What does this fold into?
Amino acid sequence: MPKSYVKEARNKKVAPKRERVRPVIARLAVEHADAKIALTFANPLELLISVMLSAQTTDVNVNRVTEKLFLKYRRPEDYLAVPQEELERDIFATGFYRQKAKSLRGAMQRIVDVHGGEVPTDFDDLLKLPGVARKTANVVSAERGSAQGVVVDTHVRRLSQRLAFTRQEDPVKIERDLIRLVPREDWARFPHLLIWHGRRICDARRPRCEECPLALDLCPSSRV
Ligand code: SF4
It folds into this structure.
């Protein structure tokens, strides 16, 4: 189980979360006006592949691999036309390459067989692709303009706990809390804002509260 940040949210008395969520989003949107997905892609297929490859590695690492990968593999059929070992070599640097190659080929096979070679737009159809879990389907849907939930990664988990938007530890339960709390029109940008805030200011070990626009009145974990 990853470290919990739930108890940190006792440092400071703040308003109830329903009153804080919109100001939190507004201030983070000013602070991180450039917050967006860090993966590089040019179409829904490249988006899906990038997100699938990003499990257990950094976006920078994925971008380095896909820069060459997407020149060689342009259609779903291309991933099926090479031996599995060749695809494994091409994605090796993203880690867990055997499982990822298997998942990619399974997903591409279903996209060819069931969806006429196009990445499905329906959330449940995305979830039926081999190797595509809720987080991947959420990222893909959000980037295509129809967020169906709130992406929960390690930063979103930590910041949601520190901001007392959730007391849960499990990502599925955290997402359930966030869906109830965050206005639907913000489902897509909310995780990006927390992710960038987590990377730049609200560090896991040493949050820089003195630089944080939420510190004085919106964050119960504030150390200032
Ligand atoms: S950096 Fe900001 S969001 Fe993180 S704990 Fe400090 S005040 Fe809260």
Remarks:
- The mean pLDDT is 97.
- Residues 115 and 125 are 9 Å apart (CA to CA).
- DSSP finds eleven helices and no strands in the chain.
